[in-house]
Structures are given as C-alpha cells and as structure tokens.
Specification:
The chain is mainly alpha-helical. It has 21 helices and 15 strands. It has one domain: Myeloperoxidase, subunit C (Orthogonal Bundle), CATH 1.10.640.10.
Length: about 550
C-alpha cells in the first residue's frame, strides 16, 4: 500500500485500532475514497448505502424456512456477539459519532479475557460479585451474582438486578432510564448489575451471560471444596483463569470451526506464533490492537445471522398461544414479551422464559470431509450467511438531514445500514483489495456481484416495475467494482458456500485475527488452576458450548 497525503492524517491515526497491514490504504483502495473528501459525494454515498440497506432487508424478508442455516445453530450468533463485546467497546454507536479512527476508542482490552463478564474483578467492581457464604462470617467475595426469576417457581436463572424506586414523575417517561416494570401497581425500576450494559441487548445474550456466571460459580465451588479454602480466602483467581481458558477453547474448537471453511480452520489451527499468519502478528510484544477491517466488517457478520423467530423452550405454545409455529419473533426477544407486553414487563425474567440450551447449542459432529455440523435435528437454526438483513430491528428514530444528507426523515436505519455507513466513514478498504491482499483464488467478479444485487430490483408481480427505493443501475455499477468489505464477505459466503459458512476471504480474515489473538493470549495455566483442572475436568477442558451447558447442568 502507498501513503496518500490527500487524505488527512487524523482520518487514520489511532492507538486503539489499526489497519490489518499496518499501513493505511491510499484513497483509490478505500471504498468510495474520493467521496470521503467531498461533502456532496459523501451525501450521495450515504444515500446509496441507504438504498443498499433496503435491498438487503427486502432479501431478508423471504419466508423464514428458506433462509434457515442447517449447519449453524442459532446460539453461535449470540456467542459471537458476546465475543464481539469482549473484544471491543466503543463509546459511539452511530456512524455520525465516529467519523475517523482517531475518534474511535476501544474501552476494552481486546485480549479475549472476558472483561465484559468480570469487569474490574471483586476489588474494583464489587457490585458484580457475591460472597461464597454469609457476609457476616467474612467470607470471600468470589462468585458472580445471579438474579431470581419471577413467578411461583423462583430460580437463579436471570441477570442480577437491583430494584430502585424512582421519584414520582421524574424519570417515568424517560426511555433512557432503567427499564420500568409495573408490579403490584407500583412503578419499579431494575438496574442490571453486569459489567457490560450491551450484554442485556436481547434475551438470548443475557441468558448466555447467566450461563457464564454459572460456569464461573460452579468452578468456584469446586476450587473451594477441593482446596478446603478458609472462608476469607478467595477462589476467584483460579476460577476466572479456568473459565477464561474454557472460553478460549470454545472460540477455537467450536465457534470458529462452525463459521470457517474447514481447510482454512485446519491451517490456522496448526499455525504458530511465528508462522502461518498473513498479516496479524501473534509474536509481537506490542499491545493487541484490533484491526479495523475485523472490528467494523468481519465481526459484523453476525447481524446477517439473526433469525426472525426462535424456538426458545417447550413452554411457548403451551403458555402463549399467540406465537406462530411455536417460535419467538426476534422483536419479542429485544423489545416485547411473548404475550405482546413491553420488554419492561418481563424484568425480572419470568421462570417459564428460561432458555433450553440444547435447542441453541446441540451436539456437533465432524464429517468425513472435516465439515463441522450439528448431530441430528431439533435445534433452532441461525440464518444463512448471505447478503441480507432482518428489517425487524430497525431504529425507531429516522435519520436526520445531518446524519443522512437528503433525508426526508422517513428512513429508519437498521443494523446493516449502520455497519455499511460506519465502514465508509472510517475509510475501510474495499472488498476487492482485501481479496487481493489475501491472495484469494476465486475472487468475486463484477458480473457475479451485479447479478446478486439486481435480483431484488423488480417486483415479482410486475417485472417491469422497480421496487420503491431500490438500487439504481448506477448504484449497482459502482458497488460491483467498489464493494464494501462487509458486503463482499457476505456475498462471497452466499455465492461460494451457499450461505452455510464463510467463504475464503471471510474465513482467512476471521482466522488471521481470532487465531492470532488466541495465540497472543497467555494460555499456560497457573499451578493451582492446572491442578484443579486435572481433577475437575479429567478429560480436558470443555471445548464446546454444549459441554459447558452440560457441565453447568442447565435445562
């Protein structure tokens, strides 16, 4: 790559993020690089991306069964979200709030250490932890808190929440305040006691956090029992060490294996810190700075995997007969209860809403060609990895003229628009450049991209009529030659792997960064943790999410 002084330095200088190659691309290698320096062209590009987002959302409106992925259970969509939260935490969410790398600050460590679960530990974040015994006996604070579910059968299966009574009339109408719930004809607010507020983004993710809390706590019990620790001696260091080691094993042997092309997963699994990586340098002594191509593009593939309905547990059709096909719509997991009530009305979690993990993380198997697949049926699938998006999770606030020049205050942006707009603002290289840098054998051709983007432009009932707000011929010509990296990765998965897994570029980009981060992590257990590991896990640490939920003993 060459430096191009026509782009201002503050567009690319950063300490928390870097470009994968270590150098910023020149203007001709960036998606719509010329438009970055021209406010008028910037507005035109954002308008084109809004039309592209509409195109992808309409593709995602196909019948759900046509888009189900038989190879990837739904749980991996949300495990990927947990990993993303562990690696990066940016203060700004909207594209207009982070237009340069210099303004994009990562508040997390980026080293796969579960700081999105543990926070600052018992000393710095005591509100996240509970004592292993009665506090009056000076017992150690080494367990992660859990919350009780609501209903006749109260169990410790919810996030920990603190009830707060708000002064009358001060915050009840403020949607930014703690979620209100009307119990016993009184207004109550519940503040969730977790390290990362994003981990309450949806019900599946919050239940996944509960699962990791339980995993940690069970290991604490085992350490205390085996080591016969005094009441005031903490088992936290060993429990966190083992929980984090299990988490990393799951990332390598379960999560990445289900996403990546089998031959590429094998390549990176055998790679060493000194050999086998294209750009990421695991042997470097510098802090692990997250590549921006991964953080803003490859890491966002999970948004395409969000399904529109989920088979959550056996209670659905029995308890809530309004739900179609015994499954939950994604909007019900994010913003409303199963019976049509608001999200606030199922805080704390009703007992009958506990997730049944075998539906989300079933037993997996390896086929003769090393493909990693679910063993059997009966699980809840994710969506196929294609150039599509669910329109169910659109923002309720239209973009303003400042955020989207030419906006008529009618465009409700979805996740895919925010992903595409942010990658444009931050000057990410186009997909074609990344395919060349990684020496991809079968790169997407402009004709393939054009054909895919044209597929949605006309109404099935009237082929001569364009869909309102669809991509124009000029849009398609631009995107076929100058493709946003995220769109390229999704199109590659769709056209090369039938949407069942990532294609070659997506797999190599994911492997280079994630396996690199795993190698940079300190994987050697301390003496105490290793001794407990041998006794608690005689067959070795769990390597799959299924092994975790079986070990913990969840439903």
């Amino acid at each position: 790559m060459h430096h191009d002084t026509s782009l201002s330095n503050d567009q690319f200088d950063a300490q928390d993020y870097m470009f994968l190659t270590g150098e910023r691309p020149n203007r001709s290698e960036v998606f719509r690089g010329d438009a970055l320096c021209d406010p008028v062209e910037t507005g035109k590009t954002l308008q084109m991306l809004s039309r592209l987002a509409g195109n992808l959302e309409r593709k995602g409106a196909a019948p759900a069964q046509q888009l189900d992925n038989p190879n990837i259970p739904a749980g991996y969509t949300y495990f990927g979200q947990l990993v993303a939260h562990d690696l990066t935490f940016e203060a700004s969410k909207l594209p207009s709030q982070a237009r340069t790398l210099a303004t994009l600050v990562n508040l997390n460590t980026g080293i796969l250490d579960l700081d999105c679960i543990y926070g600052g530990g018992p000393d710095k974040s005591p509100h996240l932890y509970q004592h292993s015994g009665p506090p009056l006996y000076r017992t150690a604070r080494d367990k992660l808190r859990l919350g009780l579910t609501r209903g006749e059968e109260q169990t410790a299966d919810d996030l920990p929440r603190m009830r707060a009574f708000a002064p009358h009339g001060t915050v009840s109408d403020d949607p930014a305040f703690i979620k209100p719930a009307r119990l016993n004809n009184r207004e109550n607010w519940y503040e969730t006691l977790i390290a990362d507020p994003r981990n309450e983004d949806n019900l599946i993710l919050s239940q996944l956090v509960v699962l990791f809390h339980k995993l940690h706590n069970k290991i604490v019990d085992g350490v205390r029992r085996r080591c016969k620790l005094a009441r005031d001696v903490s088992a936290f260091p060993e429990a966190r060490e083992l929980t984090t080691a299990i988490y990393r094993e799951v990332i390598k042997h379960d999560y990445l294996r289900v996403l990546m092309r089998p031959d590429i997963w094998e390549h990176y699994n055998k790679a060493t810190a000194e050999d086998g990586f294209r750009y990421f340098k695991p042997a470097s002594k510098e802090p692990a700075i997250i590549p921006i191509e991964f953080a803003v593009a490859a890491k966002r593939i999970g948004h395409a995997m969000i399904n529109t309905r989920y088979d959550f547990n056996k209670n659905f059709n029995e308890q809530f007969n309004t739900i179609e096909n015994d499954a939950l719509r994604i909007t019900q997991l994010v913003e409303s209860g199963p019976d049509g009530t608001s999200a606030a009305d199922f805080v704390p979690l009703p007992a009958k809403w506990r997730i049944e993990w075998p539906r989300f993380f079933p037993e997996m198997k390896l086929t003769s060609d090393s493909t990693y697949l679910p063993k059997g049926s009966g699980f809840t699938p994710s969506r196929t990895l294609r150039a599509h998006s669910t329109r169910s999770l659109r923002s309720r606030r239209p973009l303003t003229e400042r955020e989207l020049p030419g906006s008529t205050n009618e465009f409700l942006p979805g996740l895919i628009y925010h992903d595409l707009a942010r990658s444009f603002h931050l000057g990410l290289p186009r997909g074609q450049l990344m395919a060349r840098l990684f020496k991809i054998d079968e790169r997407l051709t402009p004709k393939e991209i054009t054909t895919s983007l044209k597929r949605e432009r006309r109404r099935p009932s009237n082929p001569g009529s364009l869909v309102s707000g669809s991509l124009t011929p000029q849009d398609i010509n631009i995107l076929a030659e100058d493709t946003p990296l995220l769109l390229y990765i999704l199109l590659e998965a769709e056209l090369r792997e039938n949407g069942l897994r990532l294609g070659e570029l997506g797999s190599r980009l994911m492997g280079d960064v994630m396996f690199g981060l795993l190698l940079r992590a300190d994987t050697d257990l301390s003496g105490k943790a290793e001794s407990h590991c041998e006794r608690e896990f005689p067959k070795g640490l769990p390597k799959t999410m299924r092994e975790i939920h079986v070990y913990v003993g969840t439903p």
